[in-house]
Amino acid sequence: MDFQIRQAITANVLGSDATEFKDIVNDAISRGEEHLLPGLGVFLETWWQASNEDERTHFVEKLAEKFAN
Length: 69
Known about the structure:
Shape: globular
InterPro entries: SspI
Number of domains: 1
Family: Belongs to the SspI family.
Pfam family, one: SSPI
Number of strands: 0
Organism: Solibacillus palustris
Order of helices and strands: HHHH
Largest sheet: none
Protein name: Small, acid-soluble spore protein I
């Protein structure tokens, strides 16, 4: 992902509160448009960097569960 995309997405959401982030994520998922995926990726990357090991483990376990055959 191009670094300028990260900066643009970050600038667009700077100062947003939890409700606004929830709305952004729900809207991106409900639309199902692929051009919104980089924004969700930036959110995930930011969350991952701010999370502790227990939170990360829980997250990847949920992912593995959802993508299990």
